[in-house]
UniProtKB/TrEMBL annotation:
This is Glutaredoxin. Signal peptide: none annotated. GO terms for biological process: cell redox homeostasis. It comes from Caballeronia catudaia. It holds the Pfam family Glutaredoxin. One of its GO terms (molecular function) is electron transfer activity.
């Protein structure tokens, strides 16, 4: 007798940090799901469009779905809010994010020049240029959301590096400017409890949650870059250690 198909589906693509996290979350809870890689599954892409989802990852059941940008939304969708743990305090998250960005700025210049615009891993549709810039796109999207009221931050965070980013130094210059803008935002933020709600395309969520998400998101991609450069035998002047990751809801996997 053939086993019944899982009721839950996860739509994802390789290299997507939130995709890795939600798949690990459901696996840890022993919730079976159909894995739909929208890069290689044409029917999966058609189903994603039919559902009306504007980005991935999503978790679906029948005609209903939830965006997995918020793991709390996923937990509520599968009736497992007991699996949600407390976040680090906002000031700790900010400090960790600052450390992450500093490490990224220190190692981006070490990317081999000849490989900067080349894909770095089979099956992952990104170049070193895209990956390094994406670390700071997360910052840009965060700032536009919290300062300007941008609701769909994916239009900033989930696009390829723009044409003006041609060299490693272009990433470093923009990255430094965004890190400084983030510092200014934090230093001038009156309510550092970060409890006020933000309206985003997947609903209203507290600033604290979005700060956590943005912090671990930049950390995950910096972690990927550290791994790639270390595999090449490049001596890195700065790295992220276990203490830097402690308390962040990072996925265990780097890519899938």
């Amino acid at each position: 007798m053939q086993a019944a198909s899982p009721e839950i589906s996860v739509f994802w693509q390789p290299g997507c940090s939130s995709c890795v996290r939600v798949k690990e979350f459901l696996t840890r809870l022993e919730i079976p799901f159909k894995s739909v890689n929208v890069l290689s599954d044409t029917q999966g892409r058609d189903e994603l469009r039919r559902l009306g989802a504007r980005s991935i990852p999503i978790v679906s059941k029948g005609d209903e779905f939830v965006y997995a940008q918020s793991i709390e939304d996923v937990a509520r969708f599968v009736d497992r809010m007991d699996a949600i743990t407390d976040r680090l305090p906002p000031e700790i998250l900010y400090a960790k994010w600052t450390k992450v960005l500093g490490v990224a700025l220190a190692i981006i210049p070490l990317i081999p020049e000849a490989e900067f615009d080349a894909p770095f891993r089979p099956g992952v549709p990104r170049t070193y240029r895209d990956l390094s810039y994406h670390i700071f796109q997360v910052v840009d999207a965060f700032l536009q959301t919290v300062q300007d009221g941008l609701e769909d931050w994916t239009v900033v965070a989930n696009v390829d590096a723009p044409a003006r980013i041609q060299k490693k130094n272009d990433v470093v210059v923009e990255g430094k400017a965004l890190a400084e803008e983030l510092q200014h935002w934090w230093l001038t933020l009156e309510d550092k409890s970060c409890q006020h709600p933000l309206k985003m395309f997947y609903g209203e969520h507290p600033l604290h949650q979005f700060l956590e998400r943005s912090t671990w998101h930049s950390a995950q991609h910096t972690r990927q870059l550290i791994s790639l450069l270390s595999e090449k035998g490049i001596d890195l002047p700065s790295k992220l250690e276990a203490d830097d990751y402690q308390g962040l809801p990072l996925p265990k996997g780097l890519w899938t």
